[in-house]
Write a structure and sequence with these properties.
The chain is built from nine helices and eleven strands. It is α/β, with parallel strands linked by helices and 271 residues long. It has a six-stranded antiparallel sheet. It has a five-stranded parallel sheet with strand order 9-8-7-10-11, with helices on both faces. The longest helix has 13 residues. It binds adenosine-2'-5'-diphosphate (A2P).
């Protein structure tokens, strides 16, 4: 079933729709998570970690768009997105049915704060995510700049179940064998997955594991310090708020494109 047949009342996006891009490949990770790759418009430029608005047409033929982090590094010639499937979500209830050779809309205006330019320099970078919030880190982890700027890069991913960690496990594997960044990543990239509902090797919310110090002890790293540590946060609203408070309490200042700081936050797309 294609996106169009799943919602027959909505007009189909085709090659003539403004800002249409072609879907090349779709992968379903679980019954609630999927990723898809689209052709990259020749003139499209972005910084690793940024997001764009993508979507389909609604019942009256108007674009129905949501913010999606680009899960590809700036140098890749295709663009990948990672999405939740919400059965009654206005967009993802239909987007989850796209197939190769379908078209979707992508507004070619990348923005976002999860960019290396928004951080001051340090020796360690924590990329803290829940659920589909890991998507922008799939971009940043394959950008050579990250390994040039930091001695250690720690990716944390917290999900309810083990199956939901498949995307980040695959990402780390691919990154460590990537022809461009693989060697640097093999030395510097540390992966810290946790589950909160299904039993696994490491259980608990990343926020609690940081607060208790368990995460730092597990990794043999010092506790968070503004001098050495920088943090990028992307996940649910609740996690973002808790991490923001934790970082602020540890003396880290929030950064932005216009004023780099010690940590940056962005909400993962949900719904
Ligand atoms: P939990 O199972 O304890 O709620 P969701 O599927 O609801 O989007 O959540 C994704 C993951 O984020 C879950 O593992 C969930 O844990 C975790 N999570 C939710 N709220 C927070 C928070 N405030 N801090 C850290 N992790 C959180």
């Amino acid at each position: 079933m294609t996106a169009s047949s799943a919602a027959s009342t909505c007009p189909i996006v085709d090659a003539s729709t403004p800002d249409a891009i072609k879907v090349l490949d779709v992968k379903h990770w679980t019954d609630k998570l999927f990723s898809f790759t689209v052709a990259r418009p020749a003139s499209f430029r972005f910084r690793s970690g940024e997001f764009v608005m993508i979507g389909l047409l609604n019942e009256v033929g108007k674009p129905l768009l949501r913010a999606y982090s680009i899960a590809s590094p700036f140098w890749e010639d295709t663009l990948t997105f990672y999405s939740i499937k919400v059965q009654d979500g206005p967009l993802t209830s239909r987007l989850q049915h796209i197939e190769a050779d379908d078209y979707i809309i992508m507004r070619p205006k990348p923005v976002g704060t999860l960019v290396l330019d928004a951080l001051t320099s340090g020796s360690r970078l924590y990329l803290v995510s829940t659920g589909t919030g890991v998507a922008p880190f799939a971009s940043l982890l394959r950008d050579p700049d990250i390994y040039e700027r930091f001695e250690q890069v720690i990716l944390t991913h917290t999900c309810r179940d083990v199956a939901e960690l498949a995307y980040s496990a695959d990402l780390v594997e691919r990154t460590k064998t990537d022809p461009l960044v693989g060697e640097m990543a093999a030395d510097k990239l540390i992966y810290y997955p946790t589950t909160t509902r299904e039993p696994s090797n490491r259980m608990g919310r990343v926020t609690n594991l940081m607060e208790s110090g368990a995460l730092f002890d597990d990794l043999g790293l010092p506790h968070l310090s503004a001098e050495t540590d920088k943090v990028m946060i992307c996940g649910s609203m609740a996690m973002n708020l808790d991490m923001k408070q934790f970082c602020s309490a540890a003396g880290l200042s929030e950064g932005a494109n216009s004023k780099p700081g010690d940590f940056v936050v962005e909400k993962a797309f949900v719904g």
